[in-house]
Design a protein that fits this description.
Its main location: membrane. Produces ATP from ADP in the presence of a proton gradient across the membrane. One of its GO terms (cellular component) is plasma membrane. Belongs to the ATPase epsilon chain family. This protein is an alpha+beta fold. It has two domains: 3-82, Sandwich (ATP Synthase, domain 1); 87-136. The chain has helices at residues 89-105, 109-136, and strands at residues 3-8, 13-19, 21-26, 29-33, 40-53, 56-69, 74-78, 81-82. Strands 1, 2, 3, 4, 5, 6, 7 and 8 form an eight-stranded mixed beta sheet that branches. Strand 6 (56-69) and strand 7 (74-78) form a beta hairpin. Helix 1 runs antiparallel to helix 2. It starts with a strand and ends with a helix.
């Protein structure tokens, strides 16, 4: 028995397949699903989703959204979800530096919050990319 998982965004279906295990973070902490888990709906944090499928470890950078689990299907609806191979690591690193520069000089609370949120998303991209490349080389 396995989980039937779909990850969708407003723009595309990012991944669909069978999984033995799924882990993710909510605003209240980390959770994991095994097959035949009780139904649940949960909000997703901006963090990594890890899927174990056919002996492979898949990582996705997920930028918020929701997860719905029924006995038949697990649906992840995210604002954005990126596979490591789709991440432009150099662009993400440049954007982190830019956000850090903005945070050093910006006094407006809203602009600081926006820059901090952007920086967190780019740091997540970097983390997912690096975890994936380290796993590939083992």
């Amino acid at each position: 028995m396995s989980l039937n998982v779909s990850i969708v965004t407003p723009y595309a279906k990012v991944w669909e397949g069978e999984a033995e295990y799924l882990s993710f973070r909510t605003p209240f902490g980390e959770m994991g699903f095994l097959p035949q888990r009780a139904p649940i709906v949960a909000q997703l944090a901006v963090d990594v989703i890890e899927i174990k499928s056919k002996g492979e470890r898949l990582l996705f950078a997920v930028h918020g959204g929701y997860i719905l689990n029924t006995r038949e299907k697990t649906l992840i609806v995210a604002d954005a979800a990126e596979r490591p191979e789709d991440i432009d690591i150099h662009r993400a690193e440049e954007r982190v530096k830019r956000a850090e520069e903005i945070l050093k000089v910006e006094r407006d609370a809203r602009k600081r919050a926006r820059a901090n949120a952007k920086m967190q998303r780019h740091l997540l991209r970097i983390r997912v990319y690096k975890e994936h490349t380290q796993t590939e080389h083992k």
